[in-house]
Amino acid sequence: MKMLSKWVVRGAEFISALMLAAIFSTFLVQIFSRYAAKLSWIIPIPSISDWMGQLQPVGWTVNLISLLWVWAVFFGCSFIVREKDHVTFDVLYLAMPRAGRVVLAYMSAIGMLAAMLYAMPAVWDAIFANRLMDLKKIQTLRMPISGDKIAVKWLFASIVLLMVVTIVRYAYRLYSISRHGPPGTELEALISDDQSSGA
């Protein structure tokens, strides 16, 4: 399971890196198209300076950057951010004996599962069953193959992805608690990391 998890995280990191590279490249296109006409005099080659002088600012870049940024954030939170990377208030958890930590771990996992499962139908309806989300389009972006404008629902679909992955994560966490006990403390994680690196 650890090997599968490692490959999923590596694949997710690669996809996130591609999204960030696309954001950066699109940002450069946006800047170049905005200022090329004003800076065309710098290039002494007539064909290039004439081409730059005729360039108009590209409108679709802002929407593409926004779409990719939202997806990069929610995709990264879904697959890359680990449980221990979150800020936690665990003073009570760490002060409890093992049996108490088991109870608190179960309560937090069940609470997250219940919240996500309760919210999922309403979120799904708001994004995928809402006719307005289908009709409203991102005006400057089109699908590469079909040429159709992209519906706004695909901007918000990343939220559904985050919810699905959270449900899977916390369902696995319940299984892990039942098999291996509560998650280790930060100190226990540091000790096990030191032992594995020293071996």
The main pleated sheet reads as: 2 strands, antiparallel
Radius of gyration in whole Å, from Cα? 24 Å
Classification by helices and strands? mainly alpha
Number of separate helices: 8
Taking the alpha carbons of the first and last residues, their distance comes to 21 Å
- Summed up, the domain count is 2
Strand order of the largest sheet: 1-2
Counting DSSP E segments of at least 2 residues, the number of strands comes to 2
**Overall mean confidence score, pLDDT:** 84
Bulk shape = elongated
Unreliable segments of 5+ consecutive residues: none
Order of helices and strands: HHHHHHEEHH
Strand content: under 5%
| Residue share in helix | over 70%
Based on the model shown, name its key terms.
2 domains, single chain, 8 helices, mainly alpha, 199 residues, 75% helix, two-stranded antiparallel ribbon
SSE layout and pairing:
Blueprint: H1 2-39, H2 46-54, H3 60-79, H4 91-95, H5 98-128, H6 131-135, E1 137-142, E2 149-151, H7 153-180, H8 186-198
Antiparallel strand pairs: 1-2
What would you say this structure looks like, in words?
- By secondary structure, this protein is mainly alpha-helical.
- The chain has two domains: 81 residues; 116 residues, no CATH class.
- The chain has eight helices and two strands; from the N terminus they run ααααααββαα.
- A two-stranded antiparallel sheet has the order 1-2.
- A hairpin with a 6-residue loop joins strand 1 and strand 2.
